Amino acid sequence: MRLLVINDVSTVWGGATKVAMRCIEAATSAGMECTALVGDDGAGIRARFPQVQVEALGEKPLREGAHPGDVFSRNFNGRAYRALGRLLSGGSQDMIVHVHGWSQILSPSIFHALARHRANVVLTTHDFFLTCPNGGYVNYQRGDICHVKPLSMSCLASNCDKRNYLHKLWRFARSLTQQGAGEAFWSRIGVILAHEAMEPYLRAGPFRNFLTLRTPAEPLSRNGRVRAWDNDRILYLGRMTWEKGVRTLAEALNATGSPATLIGQGPLLREIRQALPHCWVAGWLEDDEVARIASETRYVIMPSRMPEPYGLVAAEALMCGIPVIVSSNALIAEEIARNGAGLVFESGNAQSLAEKIALMRSDDLVRHLSDGAFAYARKIAPTWSEWSGRIVDIYTGKTRFISQ
After folding, report:
1. Which fold has domain 228-380?
2. Angle at which helices 15-29 and 384-396 cross, to 10°
3. 379 contacts: CB under 8 Å, gap ≥ 6
């Protein structure tokens, strides 16, 4: 049995690529022959897995700056289509294809190539691009969750894109290209959900086979359980973008006068630095420095405006006993509240967040929530070892998808 992993990039900057690399690691450890198709230069995989055959396009993601040709190539990347066709032409009946990210470089062309072959295809949902043109079920112009049916006339008329309506039309066209791979193809692939609450959002599409495999989490701190109630540091860890809720966070921190540490890159980094002169808005930091900061943290805030598919940062905080304040839009919010592992505020409501920040000044409350966080973290996600065994079982057919 052979595994072909497909992902936009080979260097780990986000969760999707981290999981893709773990898939290769699990499969090679199980003795499977592995190949990877990536849109960048492939250096990240070649350095980490020299035994893996890499087909690399050498292109750059859209987030690093688009050029006019991307209007066509990121809708249907002909080079990706032909490269994948070559990889599948040698015989695909004994091949498992695992798709991760495609929206930045590879484009929906890969699904058209896959539809022409008989390989078994599984796809992990790291976002909502399978059904939603802007990938987030968010109306960026209004600042709330979008409940319009994807690819309907109402969806076409909705100016929901974070940039402008013309860009929304381009995204809509790309989703139509994606859908054009055919219902017969989409209904046979296996969809791996990063969180079970993602499934209702994906039922709008032609998908029939689902399975939940939560992404493993590793503790933010490397020094065991954190005595959060003895600490003062408030921590945000994530991209500096509107959908991650950093503007809501800034407004709440200013309203309460609370100092905080904000770690992460993104287009709003400069704006947030100017908005929070009393906070340390660090930008990107090395993992060792993040771990050190985590050991000094009282609680983590995850203020997402979008339906956060999982909330890995929250899980990583809980694993070392750091409670969290999460947005009501996070799919993990309900279980955090139910297990006494943190507080939930109304998404996009800075006053609601400020009220929760004020409550967390109580050492007794923080200690209570820390106990709940540490206890619940043992159940929130599998370990990487458990996850690796389960992903190999999916590849080998020992674990089967549930058909709807």
Report:
1. Rossmann fold (3.40.50)
2. 70
3. none
pLDDT tens sequence across 266-278: 999 999 999 999 9
The CA–CA distances, whole Å, from 182 to 73, 111, 113, 281 equal: 20, 9, 11, 46
Beta bridge partners of 176: none
- Nearest alpha-carbon partner for 198 in 329, 107, 361: 329
Cα–Cα separations (whole angstroms), residue 142 to 139, 248, 347: 6, 14, 13
Q: 173 — phi, psi (to 5°)?
A: -65, -40
CA torsion, ordered 340, 304, 155, 206, to nearest 10 deg? -50
The angle at the Cα of 140, spanning 136 to 144, to the nearest 5 degrees, equals 80
Strand partners, 345: 327
Q: How confident is the model at residue 92 (pLDDT cuts 50, 70, 90)?
A: low
| Nearby residues of 355 by Cβ (< 8 Å), 6 or more positions away | 345
Q: What pLDDT does residue 49 have?
A: 96
Q: What is the pLDDT of residue 276?
A: 98
User: Closest Cα partner for 117 from 28, 34, 211, 181?
Assistant: 181
How does pLDDT run across 13-58, given as a tens digit for each residue?
777 888 999 999 999 999 999 999 999 999 999 999 999 999 999 9
What pLDDT, on the 0 to 100 scale, is given for residue 383?
85
Map out the domains of the chain as residue ranges. Answer: 2-216+383-403, 228-380
**Closest Cα to residue 62, out of 9, 105, 14?**
105
Could you give the angle at the alpha carbon of 154 between the alpha carbons of 152 and 155, nearest 5°?
65
pTM of the model: 0.87
**Domain 2-216+383-403: what homologous superfamily?**
Glycogen Phosphorylase B; (3.40.50.2000)
Flag whether pLDDT at 91 surpasses 80: no
Report the candidate in 278, 260, 269 with the shortest Cα–Cα distance to residue 239.
269
Tokens of 166: 């013309």
- For residues 313 and 320, the answer to whether their CB atoms sit within 8 Å is no
64 neighbors 70 (Cβ within 8 angstroms): no
CA 212 from chain centre, in angstroms, equals 14
Q: Residue 325 in contact with residue 299, Cβ under 8 Å?
A: yes
Domains 2-216+383-403 and 228-380 are alike in CATH topology: yes
